[in-house]
Amino acid sequence: MEMIQSDLVPNPKGHYSQAIVSNGLIFVSGLLPDVAASGVQDSFERQVRSVFERAQQILEAGNSSMDQVVQCTAYISDVALWPQFNEIYASIFGAHKPARAVVPVAALHYGFQVEVQIVAEVNAK
């Protein structure tokens, strides 16, 4: 098992790793948008894009990529955001269609509207 830390993403504030590589997979912890690039008051679309940019940076640090994502769990702060999330998600992943769950929740940390957790395959070293 290997802990992954991208220098492009701030260190976690809690007792967890950005990601763990184990048995050929990378497990990316729940990610919130970048406050500097996409503040809480920013649009939902910018928050979603920011979260996936962070995911990409962590995946690359773990020798993986967005094309290797096998599963994504997204938490959104309002079920009414689901159609918009789906459009943005499709534009990010294109023809690639990982397994996915979208979970509407009452609230997310710091007032954000989206949090994403990802599992992906890792390139052989």
Give the secondary structure arrangement, pairings included.
Elements: E1 2-4, E2 19-22, E3 25-31, H1 44-61, E4 69-76, H2 82-93, E5 99-104, E6 114-121
Parallel strand pairs: 4-5
Antiparallel strand pairs: 1-2, 2-3, 3-6, 4-6
Helix pairs in contact: 1-2
Key descriptive features of the protein:
125 residues; 2 helices; alpha+beta; 24% helix
Detailed description of the structure:
This protein has helices at 44-61, 82-93, and strands at residues 2-4, 19-22, 25-31, 69-76, 99-104, 114-121. It has 125 residues and is α+β, with helices and mostly antiparallel strands. The protein has one domain (2-121): 2-Layer Sandwich (60s Ribosomal Protein L30, Chain: A). Strands 1-2-3-6-4-5 form a six-stranded mixed β-sheet, covered by helices on one side. The longest helix is centred in the middle third of the chain and has 18 residues, at 44-61.
**What's the CATH first level?**
Alpha Beta
SSE succession: EEEHEHEE
C-alpha-based Rg, rounded: 14 Å
Q: What is the count of helical runs?
A: 2
Number of domains: 1
Structural class: alpha+beta
Kindly summarize this structure in a few lines:
By secondary structure, the chain is of the alpha+beta class. The chain is built from 2 helices and 6 strands, in the order E-E-E-H-E-H-E-E.
